[in-house]
Amino acid sequence: MRELTLPPKVGEKGLLDRYLSSPLQFIAHYVAQRPGPFWFLLTLAVSASCCAVAAQYAMKLLIDAMAAKPPMLSQVYLALGGFLVLIAAESGFWRIAGWTGARTTIGVGVDMRLDLFAHLAGHSIRYFSEQPAGSLGQRITSTAGAFGALTNRLVWDVAPPLISLIGALIIFSALDPSMTAVLCAFVGVTIAALVIFGLRGRELHRHYAREASVVGGELMDVISNIYAVKSFSARQRERSRLASAFCQEAGAQNLSALHNEMLRLVNDLAIVAMAGGTLAWAVHLWMLGRVTAGDVVLVSALTFRLLHGARDMALALIDMGQHYIFIEETLAVIGTPHTVVDPATPRSPTPRGGSVVFDRVSFAYQPGVPVLNGVSLEIPAGQRVGLVGASGAGKTTMLHLVQRLYDADCGRVLVDGDPVTHLQQDHLRDKIAVVPQDTMLFHRSVMENIRFGRPGAPDEEVFAAAQAAQCHDFIAELANGYDTLVGERGAKLSGGQRQRVGIARAFLKNSPILVFDEATSALDPLSEQGVHKAMARLMEGRTVLAIAHRLSTLAGLDRILVMEDGRIVEDGSLAELKAGGGLFSKLWQMQMQPSAHAVALYS
User: Fold this and answer.
1) pTM
2) Of 334, 367, 389, which residue constitutes the final position of a domain?
C-alpha cells in the first residue's frame, strides 16, 4: 500500500480545494495519486475478461474437433488444454485483482477521509452551528465507502460485460457481418434508452441521498442527547418523531428503488430479445451449412454470457449512479468554501506578549441584527479583564473574535499588534488557552485529555499541570488513575472535575492569553471553590479575558468591562464600578441581595 500522505493543514488552502467542485474531479484526484495500482487493476480486469471470452472460443474449437469425421484427437487435446489454461488464468487474474483492489481502495479511503476532515475542520464555527455533527461524520465515512463501491462495480461488473461485448462482436463479425451490424445497432439503441431512462431518475436518487443524510443526523442527535430523552420521559415521543423521519426516508427510497426496478425491466426485455435473436440467427446459419455446431455453441455461450453480464452491468451502473450522487451531495455540504481562511502570506506571530486590541469592531451573526457596534478596546499584556452584561450583550462574541472563530464585519482585532486576519489561525490560537463553561472532554484517558493542550508534553509536565489545577488527587483515586477513560464528553467525571481537567489542559498549554467563558457558572459552591483556586494560579502572569455572571468571581481581576447592546458602557475596577451607581452597581446589588429582589420580582 502506498505510504499515506498527511492531509493539508486545517485552514490552509490544500490540494483538495481544487477538486471539490465536482465529483468527477474529486474522484480523478485520488485515482491520479495512485496511477500504477489503478492501471494494474484495470489491466487485470481486462485480462481476466479476455481469458473468459477466449475460453468460450476454445470450447468452440473443442466441439468442432470432436464433431469432425473422424474426430481430430490432437486438436481435441490442444483445445481442452487451452480451455483449462484460460479458465485457470481468468481465476488467477481475478484473485490478484481482488487483492490489488482491496489494498488500493482501502488506502484511498483513508486519504479521502483525512482530506475531507481537514477541509471540514477548516470551516467556521458558524458552519458547525448549522450542520448536525452526526450527519457530517456519516458523510465522511460513507463517501470513502462510496468510492470503494464505485471502483469495485467498475472492475467486477462493468468491465467484464464490455470486454465480452467487444469479443462477441469480433467473433460474430467472422461468422456473419450482418448479424454483427444488427447486434451493434441493437446494443446502441438499448444503451441509449437505458442512459436516458437512468438520467431521469437522478433527482429521485439525489432526494433519497439527502433524506438518508438527514435521518442519520437526526438519529445521532437523539442518541447524543439520550440523557435529556430519559429525563423528560420522551422515549416514546422521540420514537414517534424518528418513525416519521424514517417513513419519509423510506418513501424517497421506495421511489428510487421503483425507478431502478423499471430500469432493470427495460434491460431484461432488451437482453432477452437480443439473446433469442442471435441464437435463432446462429441456428439458421447452421441449417444453411454456413457455420459449424461449435459456432452455434460459441454464439450460445457468448449470448448467455452477455445476457448475465449486461444485467449485472445495468445493476452496477444504477448502483454507481447512486454512489456518485452521494459523493456529489457530500461535496455540496462539506466541500463549500471556507469563510474564515488563512492569508496567502501569513505574518510571523509576535512571540509571547498577550496584548489585545479591538479597533472599532462591529459584528452580526445575521444581517441587520448587530451583536457588536463599533467596539474599541485596548488590553495591555498581563492585564486581567472581566466581561459583564446581560445575555446577548456581545461578551462571548468578543471572545470568539479574539480566537478568530469568526471574522469581524468591520474594524480590526489585534493580538500583540498583529491583526488576527494576518496570522495563521493555528498560530494565533497557540497563543490562547480557553476554559469554557462546559469543558468538552474526549472519550479518551485523563492523561490524553490533559495532554491535548500540548501533545508533546512529557508525563512529568502533565502531572505538574494536574497538581497546579488541583485535580491530581481525584485522578489518583480513579480506577485506572491517569489511564482512566472519562467517557463520552467526560460523562464519568463530575462538573467540577471536568473543569479542573480543562484548567490542567490550559496550564499545560502555557499560553500568554487566557479565556474563561463562564467557567464556574454551572458548579456547586464546593466545586467552585476548588476551581477558583486553580483558576487563580493559572491567571498569574497572563492576559485574562473572563466572562462572569457571578459578579463575586471578579474580585481578583484588574479591570471590568460592562456591556450592553453590543457596546462597552462601563470600564473600571470592581471598586470604581460598585461606587459608580451605573449598570454594574445595580447588577451587584441584585446579586448581593437576591431574596429582596426576588420578592419584588414575583410580588
Assistant:
1) 0.73
2) 334
Q: What are phi and psi of 547, to 5 degrees?
A: -90, 135
293 and 382 in a common domain: no
In this structure, the answer to whether residues 306 and 373 fall within a common structural domain is no
| Helix locations, 235-287, DSSP H | 235-287
Q: Which residues of 298-406 form beta strands (DSSP E)? A: 356-366, 369-379, 384-389
Q: What residue numbers bound the domain in which 114 lies?
A: 15-334
One domain, residues 167 and 136? yes
Residues 330 and 358 in one domain: no
Of the two residues 341 and 363, the one the predictor is more confident about is: 363
Quote the CA–CA distance of 555 and 539 in Å, as a whole number: 13
Using alpha carbons, list the distances in angstroms from residue 77 to 61, 65, 284, 541: 10, 9, 30, 92
HSE at residue 191, side-chain half, CA atoms within 13 A, is 13
Per-residue pLDDT tens for 474-499?
899 988 999 999 887 777 888 888 88
Looking from the CA of 14 toward its CB, the CA atoms found within 13 Å total: 22
How is residue 386 written as a grid cell? 472581566
Residues in CB range of 597: below 8 A, 6 or more apart: 589, 590
Rounded to an integer, what is the distance from CA 337 to the centroid of its chain? 15
Phi then psi for residue 193, to 5 deg, are -65, -40
* 14-36 per-position pLDDT tens digit: 445 667 778 888 999 999 999 99
State which of 334, 369, 402 marks the end of a domain. 334
Into how many domains does the chain fold? 2
